[in-house]
């Protein structure tokens, strides 16, 4: 690992590091689209399973320098560690992307690793997934019409346009609905609200004693609010702490609003409660109308 390899890049060939829900879905989508796909997973039995129906082989040190696209689909630190180990054998012209749900930590480290080297790291966050994890739950249509947030490195406008066009072509079989450019800072601010806070709220909500007796009394509202209470605790702990400042702000903001509702209910203040509810309804409609 880390020795220089003189192996030619194979156009369109993809290497995927981590064959869980995200990596497995990329593998299945790209394989179905005719791409040559190689994969690596820390648990080797998962790689062997993927070789049966999805990937063309294992992503070994000999294969890494032949890949035009590398997808880092593991936990943040695992992805960073892999890139450090393989930085010197990646092929000139290759594009490396990640799928991590936070961007400041991984982009800061990976942009630095890529600096001065003949390949490009691009921060990416596919806005898709389920409450389940693992290769068994991955699927080829996971990304159909989903947004992809893209955080490119510093480069001139022509280089950026060329790189984004290549990336879109390489990922075309995945069927992303859009690609939104962002900075790492803006991404992490927004994702703290749209994703991370939702997981915290859902996970905390099911800790009510009433949760044990909900059967027969619950329908869509309960199902929608608790969908992401089921999660990979190790992964989300890492993501939450890597975005602690933004997530803490969102939790504090929510607690403040919840306190307003609680105070109005405790005071039996119908006028104040109706005003709070009407304001939330108005905000939701305004956002949808945009």
UniProtKB/TrEMBL annotation:
Coiled coil: none
Entry keyword set: Oxidoreductase
Highest taxon of the lineage: Bacteria
Name used for this protein in its record: Prephenate dehydrogenase
Pfam family, one: PDH_N
Every Prephenate/arogenate dehydrogenase domain range: 12-290
Family listed: Belongs to the prephenate/arogenate dehydrogenase family.
UniProt KW NADP keyword: no
GO molecular function: NAD+ binding; prephenate dehydrogenase (NAD+) activity; prephenate dehydrogenase (NADP+) activity
Gene Ontology biological process terms, A to Z: tyrosine biosynthetic process
